[in-house]
Amino acid sequence: MIRIIMKAFMFFKVSIVFLIVLQPFFLDAQDYKLFTANSKKLYTDYPLPLNTYSLSIESAQKIGNDSVYYNFFKLSSEWIESDTCWFWGGPECNQQNVPTWAGKKIKFDNLESYTFYNLDNDSLYFYFNTEIDGPALFYYDSVQEFSIMYAATDTITVLGDPDTARYFTILHSDHDGNEIDSPLNGQNIIISKQFGLVRFFVIDSFPSVLKPISIIGNVSPTAGFYQLTNEMVYDYQVGDEIQYKESNWHYYGPPWENFIRYRKQIYLERGETADSLIYRIHQELFYEDSAGIEIDTITKKYLRSKVIAQIPFEKFNGSTRKLKYVDYCGQSCWTYSFEPIEDFGFCDADTCWGTIDLGRPPDYLYTSYVIGLGLHTNIASNPWPDWSYNIRKKINYFKKNNEECGNEVIVGIDDFNKPTNEIVLSPNPSNGKVHIASSHDMKLLILRDLYGSTILTQSISNNEITIDVSQLSNGLYFAIILLENGEIVTKKFVVLKR
Prior knowledge:
The chain is mainly β. It has one helix at 230-233, and strands at 2-4, 40-45, 52-63, 66-71, 73-81, 92-99, 105-108, 113-117, 123-127, 136-140, 145-158, 161-173, 188-192, 196-201, 212-219, 223-224, 227-229, 241-251, 259-272, 276-287, 294-303, 307-310, 319-328, 331-340, 344-347, 352-355, 364-370, 374-382, 388-400, 403-406, 423-426, 433-438, 442-449, 454-459, 464-468, 475-483, 488-495.
């Protein structure tokens, strides 16, 4: 049995593992199509994820006995002058004329052969016949040639669903038959009965770029990574910490308040219902150049099924959308970003996009989400001299699954003095252990040093606990305690070893 096991949604140390186990499996002859005119698929680099490559068909035509599929075009980065349309600042616009990774078009003979066309209009001819004994050439140039050879037809599990698949092996050699060691040599092309093209390679820049890819999402049948939801993005655990840097700046226009502030959130409780995720959060808010700090306990609720983004998203619609596997301090996770352009209009005559004349520059907008961290960056700005503004919110520091990333900004701790007689720490000062006793049951203890760094996070189920502080340096520390009744109490204590 052949299994493709994909773990695409874990936050840290996410890997896409392709485990293949062969077992003979015999089928009647099947017409295994790579895709149809309604296919929507998402791929990533194989064997390690990095970029994503989406595929859906804009149109399909029957030409003779062949079906010809035309891919959606992406937006060119080069400016042209439109002959008929006028945009902000002039006639310049960006044409929608760049093919996706699959090339300009794909021709299918409705039997077993496909022809792909790269950006240079070179044709790659694939004959996916299971009865050919030897290699079948699909591309050659002055120095090299590429062939495929039928390997097996076996059972498969892909994107969590059972299926059957045909396997073809890619052979890369020179014209004398000498094997060329390349990223494609020895790789498999996998065609699944249910999901179509499961593993392939990037066509548009072939053969200058040899890049294997593998499916991670599919629509109809729907499976894998086909949408981004609140449940995937806002997936916090008790003890997670996030600090945001938030800034507002304006000149003769909203937002009317100018500030730079930091918002620290520590997740104390996680609750789940059939339709919602509910978090109880310890929040600290302080403004730059201020010694004051606001401490509060808040509740956040997320509708689990709310869709943040539909995937794939190769068709340009006035916004740039990307899904990448991004490194954060040595840990990698999926990051989705989009940049909508205000009043971005399409010129049919020149098939190009440009900013509609608003009498001012368009707003700049950028938003990104990280699976397991939530909203990572949100920017809105406009440089118009008579009405300019800049609003930003970005994760400055986080602690997730005991992994830290970023540089936390720490406020003066003078305001950690909320009076209470419900909790007693003794001895204080201490040179070894601190006993904490409360008149109410405690649920969570967070121990922090003078600079705000978290030293310990521990769950509690009664009204007392003893902690070992013998390994701590001499100095002032803060015990942040969540009580069973929902109150948060912060107590100071001193470690003093002689």
